[in-house]
Amino acid sequence: ELIRTVYEASNPLSEYSIGKTEIFTIKSNSDFDLYSRIIYPPDFDEIKKYPVLVFLYGGPHRQKVENSWLGNATLWLNYMAQKEFLVFTIDNRGSAFRGLDFEQATFRKLGTVEIEDQLKGIEYLKSLPFVDIDKIGVFGWSYGGFMSASLMTRAPEIFKVGAAGGAVIDWQYYEVMYTERYMDTPETNPDGFEESNVLNYIQNLKGKLLLLHGTSDPVVVWQHTLLLAERAAHLGIELDYYPYIGHKHGVTGRDKLHLYQKITSYFLENLK
Questions:
Q1: 14 flagged as catalytic
Q2: Cα separation, 120 vs 26, whole angstroms
Q3: Rounded Cα distance, 31 and 267, in Å
């Protein structure tokens, strides 16, 4: 019950055309509630069929869906909704602020239950009459880049276009402190490292995949993307790739504008 409104802030986006943001839950196969969000185009018409952009992170320490302003979505995601995409996000098991059982579900097996939960979200999307199930794309950065590359290569019949930024490709080359916390070591958990390795799935790629990476990235070193590009070339598989020279784990400054223009164009050209 609302007792009193202390202060009502003005909406800085009131003069812009912003679509509805819907927040809801989807049940995982393990009966967890998975927080989910859809951003609709401003002129949404339930009679039409819309392509879907899945935006995700999926790893520890992050929660992308919140009951806050814009549902914790960025302005770029709303911009993509203006371009007549349905923009979908689901916080899978392994993500933050949901308790120990929820977050440690990925222990020693990164890239397993996260994919299962993301595909549960796709099941839900397929039940909606206004979703074009033949036009589903995915984008993420860092752990989200790992997830994007994994979904493009492990569920290639579903995801037609992907963009993977600063992506972990092989966990044995990621920083020791983080990797051993969640995966132990390659010697003690060889199966976990092998199953999570995107290099083992690149031969499955059917859609269009754009790799993006800062060449001076000290967190997810550039070699991750180079390894995937090398493996794809050896197998005769086409990838799109753009290096951001001198940038670290995040692309900053005026080059960030170039980055998002490139990602936007990639989805507009290949998924609309």
A1: no
A2: 8
A3: 33
User: Cα 11 vs. chain centroid, distance in angstroms?
Assistant: 28
Nearest to 60 by CA among 143, 118, 124: 143
Query: Which of the following is catalytic: 28, 95, 142, 196?
Result: 142
CA angle 48, 49, 51 (to 5 degrees): 140
Closest by CA to 227, choosing from 219, 216, 239, is 239
| Segment (H or E) for 240 | strand 240-244
**For residues 53-64, average pLDDT:** 94
Q: How far is CA 262 from CA 167, 183, 268, in A?
A: 17, 33, 10
What pLDDT digit, counting tens, does each position of 92-146 carry? Answer: 999 988 888 999 999 999 999 999 999 999 999 999 999 999 999 999 999 999 9
In 3D, which of 139, 156, 111, 150 has the Cα closest to residue 228?
A: 150
CB 59 within 8 A of CB 95: yes
Strand bridging mode 50-55 / 131-141: parallel
Q: Is 91 labeled as catalytic in the residue annotation?
A: no
- How much is the pLDDT for 135? 98
Q: Mark whether 30 is an active-site residue.
A: no
CATH dotted code for 21-271: 3.40.50.1820
Phi, psi angle pair for 51, to nearest 5°: -70, 160
Task: Give the Cα separation of 137 and 147 in Å (integer).
Answer: 12
Q: Write the DSSP assignment of 131-193 as a string of letters.
A: EEEEEEEEEEETHHHHHHHHHHHHSTTT--EEEEES----GGGS-HHHHHHHH--TTT-HHHH
The total of other beta-carbon atoms located within 10 Å of residue 135's CB is: 19
- Nearest-angstrom CA–CA distance, 116 and 28: 8
The catalytic residue among 28, 217, 224, 247 is 217
This prediction's pTM? 0.94
